[in-house]
Amino acid sequence: MPPQLLDLLPAVAIFGCGLQAGIMLSVIIHDWRVGALPASGYAAMHAMRDAGFRRAMPPLMLGSLAVSLLCALVVPGTVLPMGLSALLLLLSMQLTVRRLVPLNRRLVRHGMDMLPADIVRLRGRWERWHRLRTALSIAAFIAALAAGQGGGFR
User: Fold this and answer.
1) Can you tell me the distance from the alpha carbon of 130 to that of 92, in angstroms, rounded to the nearest whole number?
2) CA angle 74, 76, 77 (to 5 degrees)
3) Which residues cross the membrane (predicted)?
4) Domains of the chain: total
5) Residue 40 is part of which domain span?
6) pLDDT tens track of the chain, all 154 residues?
7) CA pair distance 36, 38, nearest whole angstrom
8) Residues 6+ apart with CB under 8 A from 142
């Protein structure tokens, strides 16, 4: 692999991990204010946000994972931090697919006219899982930064 590409890969991984962590954190910050909305307002906002993220997040998450894995495999001195970053990203993706997406579907499926009877409980569950996903994404970003400091940049 050309040396220029080896130098670029950690930066791309750090960028992808940082972008993902930043988006996840922005949702937490945004939802502090959204928490004051009535259930119907929350459901409407959640449906709009989900529609956009459903298109944007899979490529970002998969791309960040792929580049982190590639770095761990080919960039000298990055195997442990980028491997850890990739593992944390994979856990975040699993959490998204197995916990958050089903909750998103349940919230959106009912529409604004017929909210689920347990929307308050669903909302709380979604927020808890999202906080864990955010923590995993931030940890993946920190691990990627460590790879950049540990020899990924020449």
Assistant:
1) 9
2) 130
3) 12-35, 132-151
4) 1
5) 3-152
6) 788 888 899 999 999 999 999 999 999 998 888 878 888 888 888 888 888 999 999 999 999 999 999 999 999 999 999 999 999 999 999 999 999 999 998 887 776 678 888 888 999 999 999 999 999 999 999 999 999 876 544 4
7) 7
8) none
